[in-house]
Design a protein that fits this description.
- The strands form four sheets. A five-stranded parallel sheet has the order 1-7-6-4-5. Strands 2-3-17-12-13 form a five-stranded mixed sheet, sandwiched between helices. It has a four-stranded parallel sheet with strand order 9-8-10-11.
- The chain contains 15 helices and 17 strands.
- The protein folds into three domains: 31-62 and 292-400, 4-hydroxy-3-methylbut-2-enyl diphosphate reductase, catalytic domain (Cobalt-precorrin-4 Transmethylase, domain 1), CATH 3.40.1010; 64-154, Rossmann fold (3-Layer(aba) Sandwich); 157-286, 3-Layer(aba) Sandwich (Cobalt-precorrin-4 Transmethylase, domain 1).
- The protein is an alpha/beta fold.
- The protein is globular.
Length: 407
């Protein structure tokens, strides 16, 4: 949890402003989609001539995202004449963030992924929205010191992870976090250990990095190698010899669930191999902190793949971790195209602009991506993608064959 704010209900808000009814029509107009409604009404399947669109049964906006976006709209309604700032992107969807900018909400961005926010322009009369990912304890404290109004949209699933790593730090365990060291959520989560004088963390991106840590635990790597490899992904003053004796595993909530669980098992097994099963019982902890919405979307896409599709289109921001995880799952089975918006599909020349799965910070174009003849196209979307944008993609897929659906 964030540091508990003083009892000043007029300056700290976590439950909105009671304006849900007032903003519902605006939210519906901005994000609801008739095409998605049609797919739902037809068991998530739509066939037009020789093209069948199959939509995963769990997709798009999750509760935490809906809540964060709704609170941002409520904030604008509550404070129509005040300057409103947002600490980073509210969610990882470029269209949603662009809409907030159009509403007069200024998005504060770091100068670099691991840099510090500049709160110098924020005054006591300003309003600041904290994103669904949360903010670090230092950022929270700095904003509280300014005395501005804070609207906290941090997702409940993220708060659950914070409680877990804080407990690790309190009990003398280092938090080994499966996540991306530069991601807003992971930075916020890692900062929670610093509530305790000797709280520490180490962040691993994937199983390969986790195995490097395991090799150190088993005496097959040096402390210097760990510090060099994870220089940007460990807490200040991190000492492998001291801080990898007792380990508790947690994760960024949007990572690939099966990999998080596998990493936890690997670390526990390494401790047992190095120091015996008793050490595993006393010096290792693990809890599955993948959020339920992430798990449901991953399960739904596996079900869709099992039922059979020829190609997958995954919709969501290129910086959206939960979308990247969905694309990684799909690419194991069928050709997969992770796109941000419907404009990535050009029906005229039959091309698609996409992010290749498992290749970070890269983009590519493909022609002839939609197979000829009868085809089944699977569609899913990350938790930050609104329904109307999913519908736009479905329409573009059909238009690539010169088809359209009546909605």
């Amino acid at each position: 949890m964030p540091p508990q704010p003083p009892n000043e209900p007029s300056t700290y808000f976590r439950k909105g402003f009671g304006l849900k009814a007032e903003v519902q029509d605006e939210l519906a107009a901005a994000y609801d989609g008739r095409m998605v409604d049609l797919l739902r009404s037809q068991e998530f399947s739509l066939t037009v001539e020789d093209v069948t669109i199959r939509l995963a049964r769990e997709f798009g906006f999750c509760y935490g995202v809906e809540r964060a976006v709704e609170y941002a709209y409520q904030t604008r309604r509550k404070f129509p004449d005040r300057r409103i700032h947002l600490v980073g992107q509210i969610i990882h969807n470029p269209l949603v963030n662009a809409r907030l900018v159009e509403m007069g909400i200024e998005i504060l961005m770091r100068p670099e992924p691991t840099g510090a926010f500049d709160f110098g322009r924020i005054g006591v009369e300003d309003v600041v929205i904290l994103p669904a990912f949360g903010v670090t304890i230092d950022d929270f404290a700095a904003l509280r010191d300014i005395g501005c109004i804070l609207v906290d949209t941090t997702c409940g699933s993220v708060l659950n992870v914070w409680k877990r790593v804080e407990t690790y730090a309190r009990d003398g365990f280092t938090a080994l976090i499966h996540g991306k060291y530069y991601h807003e959520e992971t930075r916020a989560t890692a900062s929670q250990v610093r509530k305790y004088p000797d709280g520490h963390y180490l962040i691993v991106r994937n199983m390969d990095e986790a195995r490097i840590v395991c090799e150190y635990i088993e005496g097959r790597r040096t402390a210097g190698e760990i510090l060099a490899r994870f220089a940007r992904a460990v807490s200040p003053g991190f000492d492998p010899e001291r801080h990898l004796r007792r380990v508790g595993v947690a994760n960024q909530t949007t990572m690939l669930a099966r990999e998080s669980l596998a990493i936890a098992e690997e670390v526990g097994a390494a401790i047992a191999r190095a120091r015996g099963s008793d050490a595993r019982g006393s010096s290792f902890r693990s809890f599955d902190t993948i959020c339920s919405a992430t798990q449901e979307r991953q399960d739904a896409v596996r079900e869709l793949l099992d039922e059979g599709v020829d190609v997958m289109v995954v919709i969501g921001g290129f910086n959206s971790s939960n979308t990247i995880s969905l694309a990684a799952l799909c690419t194991e089975r069928v050709p997969t195209y992770h796109i941000e918006t419907s404009s990535a599909i050009d029906p005229e020349d039959g091309t698609i602009h996409y992010r290749p799965a498992r290749i970070e910070h890269s983009e590519a174009d493909a022609s002839g991506w939609l197979p000829a003849g009868e085809v089944r196209v699977g569609v899913t979307a990350g938790a930050s993608t609104p329904n109307n944008k999913i519908g736009d993609v479905v329409a573009r897929i059909l238009a690539t064959r010169g088809l359209r659906a009546e909605v």
